[in-house]
Amino acid sequence: MKILLNNATERDIQHRLKVEQLYVQYPQLKEIENDLYQTLTRLTRGLIGWPNPESQSQLTEQLEVLRKRRRMYLEQVGLPDNYNVPQARCSICHDMEVVEGVNGWELCSCVRKRQQEYRFAGAKIPAKMREQTFENFSLQYYSSTEMVDDRDNQYQKAQKALKGAEEFTDHIIRQHPTKGLYFFGGAGVGKTHLVSGIANRLMEHDITPLYLMVADLLDEMRKGYDSTEADQHATALMEQAKETPVLILDDIGAERATEWSIEKLFQIINHRYLNQLPLVMTSNYDLDDLAHHMGTGATGIRICSRIVETCRIFRLDCDDIRRQKRREG
């Protein structure tokens, strides 16, 4: 388990920095607080018997004057009385990260939530995709009368794609061998929603996939030519794409097809093919069009060949779902 920085410590550091900035802005406030602290210290020492030239009544009077001065100054600059008291982020554990449960001490839900955020960040799953699940994948946007091919209408195609995504995910969770998936169809037909459903279901079972937009992946790798640091990052990303337990490549074919980009994609896909590591892809292209997009070179043909051999292929077709939702209001 990743060791988490104690939230209370992090909160205190950030709060102290904020208070120091206020003291730079309001130096008189810092002077008042220092006088209060010194007066309280002398009063405390007197109470425990330390020698003190000032009487307790004198110190008490000074303290009241300083407190009044502090209240007036805070009102003047518009700061609350508790400006220098850090506020807990979690109302359950008060940033201590543990709570006492029925069976003893246990991690607070805020820690589990933060761990989940770290995992989503590591999986590179955008916030929008975290809302898209199998449960809210709606078949209502697919026509039961519009035929996609000789066998299936839009609704039937979407039904098969959803079932295929759920079966794939179930096999991964159960650690059963399974083919990958290739979803294709136009913009707004539900491809990314399905791969989001896969990613979210896997995350629920503590399996962290890696989600990459193909164009973004290639851009990051191109930056490797700019500096040594960027090259190290690009190399690490390439290795992560090759070795991650489940890889999701979104929108293959949207990238500018060059000999270099096609070769990099082939290296990832071929490595996963040889090592029997599952791969999920989406594209606007069917495989014939994808091969055409990649040109007549042998590498593009080999990519499509690997996809045919390793993936179940599903087509999605309907009017753009985003536009349908806007029409619904």
UniProtKB/TrEMBL annotation:
<protein>
    <submittedName>
        <fullName>Chromosomal replication initiator protein DnaA</fullName>
    </submittedName>
</protein>
<feature type="domain" description="AAA+ ATPase">
    <location>
        <begin position="177"/>
        <end position="319"/>
    </location>
</feature>
<dbReference type="InterPro" id="IPR002611">
    <property type="entry name" value="IstB_ATP-bd"/>
</dbReference>
<dbReference type="InterPro" id="IPR027417">
    <property type="entry name" value="P-loop_NTPase"/>
</dbReference>
<dbReference type="GO" id="GO:0005524">
    <property type="term" value="F:ATP binding"/>
</dbReference>
<dbReference type="GO" id="GO:0006260">
    <property type="term" value="P:DNA replication"/>
</dbReference>
<dbReference type="InterPro" id="IPR003593">
    <property type="entry name" value="AAA+_ATPase"/>
</dbReference>
<dbReference type="Pfam" id="PF01695">
    <property type="entry name" value="IstB_IS21"/>
</dbReference>
